[in-house]
Design a protein that fits this description.
mainly alpha; 254 residues; single chain
Length: 254
């Protein structure tokens, strides 16, 4: 990894006020609105409370927004000529890829750290192992969605496409149970959407796989761990294979 390039890219992204608002500030505000400030936040859920359940969802939303944005921007810059400029330096292709991946990972830490700190100060409660495991899964799992950003950048070759990909995360977040627990037919549909397995895995230490009910009339079921793991694995394979195929097609045209 090239530390100089890493530092330049990291400072450039962190100084972008608009990007950091959507990556860190907006998810933190959503956590405060839907988790910390609500009376139901104190209700018990598995090994913690509802505020902690909401906190995981908002941290995951911020982390994937970061990785999708950084991955997509890297692809667009590569095709717009910045890659040729970097090729004139002693830095290898592998160093560039690793460095940009490291930048995306570090940027993803910002919303996770901010929201978990807010949670600790505003009543989010869970067993210590739940704090550690959920944060780790949120961070590591977000790396999968950098390929979603790369794919959007490679397919449409514009910064607008990357913004649209980041915007589509709002729909995926709704269908993935990030904002509030789904039930019935919506939950059945959610199990096939990209963010469902990622967030369900992060919440598994909290809920032990039990679905959260919106009302006492709703049924609660316990999902096996393989269900969210399979969802995340399948979507990771789709994003990675599609990105490789599109990148290969682009090189064959050059």
């Amino acid at each position: 990894m090239n530390l100089t390039y890493f530092g330049i890219e990291l400072r450039r992204i962190v100084r972008d006020v608009v990007t950091m608002f959507f990556v860190a500030v907006l998810p933190a505000l959503l956590y405060v609105i839907f988790g910390a400030s609500q009376s139901y936040g104190e209700n018990s859920v598995g090994n913690g409370n509802v505020a902690f359940y909401v906190m995981i969802g908002m941290a995951a939303y911020g982390a994937v927004t970061a990785t999708v944005g950084v991955g997509g921007t890297a692809a667009v810059e590569q095709m717009q000529g910045w890659g040729r400029q970097l090729a004139l330096t002693p830095m290898s292709d592998a160093e560039r890829v690793v460095t940009r991946a490291a930048v995306g990972f570090v940027v993803a830490i910002v919303p996770v750290a901010l929201i978990y700190a807010l949670g600790a100060m505003t009543g989010a409660e869970a067993d210590p192992h739940v704090w550690a495991i959920s944060a780790l899964v949120v961070l590591l799992g977000s790396a999968v969605f950098s390929f979603f950003g790369l794919l959007a950048g490679l397919l449409f070759r514009s910064e607008a496409a990357v913004s649209a990909a980041s915007g589509s995360l709002v729909i995926f977040a709704f269908l993935g149970n990030l904002y509030f627990p789904l039930t019935g037919a919506l939950l059945d549909i959610a199990r096939f959407t990209p963010l469902y397995g990622y967030v369900a895995l992060a919440r598994y230490p909290l809920t032990d796989g039990w679905t959260v009910r919106q009302s006492p009339a709703d049924d609660s079921v316990q999902e096996a761990l393989w269900v969210p793991a399979l969802n995340l694995g399948v979507w990771a394979a789709i994003f990675i294979v599609a990105t490789m195929l599109v990148a290969r097609r682009g090189r064959s045209r050059q």
